[in-house]
Design goal:
This protein has 237 residues and is of the alpha/beta class. It has one domain: Rossmann fold (3-Layer(aba) Sandwich). It contains nine helices and ten strands. It has a six-stranded mixed β-sheet with strand order 6-7-8-3-9-10, sandwiched between helices. It has a four-stranded antiparallel β-sheet with strand order 2-1-4-5, with helices on one face. The longest helix has 17 residues. The radius of gyration is 17 Å and the shape is globular. The relative contact order is 0.18. Bound molecules: adenosine-5'-triphosphate and magnesium ion. Magnesium ion binds next to helix 1.
Length: 237
């Protein structure tokens, strides 16, 4: 379980998160929705230790991540799939998957999992030895998710998997995500502007606005409209 408690973080003079508290429970999918610039990517950067905490704490499996390096975070079971389907475009599809497993030493299991991934996605497999940048946008997003999963995370951090994709590709990516979540014992923290899609996958939904969580609910107790209405609430500075 991940617990963020009174987290403050920002860039130089810019304060982005102020007093954010959040919990991701075991085996749940939690979506954090919110407008552009709300601090959603910043929140994921704090967890993955790419950005320092200024105040507060992030606890993972009952231990603080404050002094933990980004690569140790991966070894402890947290993987980030960053914004903008960041595959390495000049590396091959297969090399992109191998990079996701850099922290593992069980090479034969890694090879097996790469084959499983490619068997599952024949269109991507056809380009296993070509530059990943030649894949379509949706395929690149699926590859980016596959790469993050190669570290065998217990918690997957997903930053806007639908961003910049045509509706048909968004549907493909969400079908893939649903299958992945169902077949693994995985917690997911999904940051997403597409509330309808996020709610098709998650158990709980929260709204990040003005650097703090202003709303949270189980998906069964709310609607996309109600969630969206919290985007525009004025937040006290
Ligand atoms: N590297 C950086 N240096 C300075 N300011 C930054 C940096 N990254 C983000 N910011 C600022 O921090 C705020 C929050 O940015 P963040 O990227 O976390 O928002 P977001 O909710 O992910 O937005 P989006 O939906 O557009 O991806 C914004 O005002 C942004 O301009
Ligand atoms: Mg973002």
């Amino acid at each position: 379980m991940l617990v963020m408690d009174n987290v403050h973080a920002g860039y130089g003079m810019t304060k982005v998160l102020h007093g954010l508290s959040l919990e991701v429970r075991d085996s749940e999918v939690l979506s954090v929705c919110g407008p552009n610039g709300a601090g959603k990517s910043t929140l994921l950067r704090v967890i993955s230790r790419q950005l320092a905490l200024r105040r507060g704490d992030v606890m993972w499996e009952h231990a603080s991540l404050k002094q933990v390096s980004p690569s140790q975070v991966v070894r402890r079971g947290i993987a980030l799939c960053p914004e903008g389907r960041r595959v390495f475009p000049r590396m091959t599809t297969e090399e992109n998957l191998q990079i996701g497993a850099y922290a593992r030493s069980d090479r034969s299991a890694v090879r097996r999992e790469i084959e499983q991934f490619l068997d599952r996605w024949p269109v991507i497999a056809r380009r296993r030895d070509s530059a990943a940048g030649l894949l379509s946008g949706g395929e690149q997003q699926i590859l980016a998710i596959g790469r993050a999963l190669m570290s065998r995370p217990k918690l997957l951090l997903l930053d806007e998997p639908s961003l910049g994709l045509a509706p048909v590709l968004i549907d493909q990516v969400y079908v893939a995500l649903k299958e992945l979540v169902e077949e693994r014992d995985l917690s997911v923290l999904l940051v997403e502007q597409n509330v309808v899609k996020a709610m098709s996958l998650c158990d709980r939904v929260a709204v990040l606005n003005g650097g703090e969580i202003t709303f949270s609910s189980s998906v069964t107790d709310t609607t996309p409209e109600a969630v969206g209405s919290h985007y525009f609430e004025k937040v006290a500075e």
